[in-house]
Design brief:
Distance between the termini: 42 Å
Organism: Sphaerimonospora cavernae
Pfam families: NYN
Radius of gyration: 17 Å
Low-confidence stretches: none
CATH class: Alpha Beta
Structural class: alpha/beta
Helix content: 25-40%
InterPro entries: NYN
CATH architecture: 3-Layer(aba) Sandwich
Strand order of the largest sheet: 3-2-1-4-5-6
Oligomer: single chain
Number of helices: 6
Protein name: NYN domain-containing protein
Length: about 200
């Protein structure tokens, strides 16, 4: 039997923020604690294979906001450099959507809009239309993704799992059930693909 094709779907702000809550002191600056998504995808596939489910990593898909370079030039440049570093691997795709800036910005923070919808659409489309994966692994605590997961399960066009940090909260599940199956990642897993690069520096 051929190894299962695995696509990892990652809401990066959710993944990064929950890692900070799980493994860093309260109040840690969000410039810290970033991860290498490709190495995380490799680890998930390795764990599936070790557990008796032969798998290969087909793609890691990252969904995140993009700062406006006119409003936040330094943050936008760092975001660009980090995305460029990730996509050096041909198996990594980054989908970014512009941040929304409230009227009272910068007294109120900019927010991501449409990230969960973009991720949900791709979870369903890549399974039901494109036949791009056998196993989709979703890293997000956003319950807005549940209908897409239910649709994939109902259509039987792919197998969905989730992954979450142990102690970080945000384990995604369908209400009243233990589904989808969750792969818990602990601090030793996290440290294995921690990325210490300072992307605020131009030479990063």
């Amino acid at each position: 039997m051929a190894p299962a094709r695995v696509v990892v779907f990652m809401d990066y702000q959710n993944v990064h923020g929950s890692a900070l809550r799980a493994f860093w002191p309260r109040g840690t600056h969000p410039a810290n604690g970033h991860i290498d998504p490709y190495r995380l995808g490799q680890l998930i596939v390795q764990k599936r294979t070790t557990n008796g489910y032969p798998s290969r990593l087909a793609q890691v898909r990252i969904y995140r906001g993009a700062p406006n370079p006119r409003r936040q030039p330094a943050a936008a440049a760092a975001n660009d450099r980090q995305s460029d570093a990730w996509t050096r691997s041909p198996k990594v795709l980054v989908r970014r959507r512009p941040l929304r800036y409230p009227t009272r910005w910068p007294h109120e923070p900019a927010v991501e809009k449409g990230i969960d919808v973009a991720l949900a659409v791709d979870v369903l489309r890549l399974a039901a239309v494109d036949d791009s994966y056998d196993v989709g692994v979703v890293l997000s605590g956003d319950t807005d993704l549940v209908p897409a997961i239910e649709a994939v399960q109902g259509l039987k066009c792919g197998h969905i799992e989730v992954a979450a940090w142990r102690g970080g909260g945000g384990r995604l599940r369908i209400d009243g059930t233990s589904s989808p199956w969750c792969r818990w990642l602990d601090e030793s897993d996290y440290r294995a693909f921690l990325d210490p690069t300072d992307y605020s520096r131009p030479h990063a």
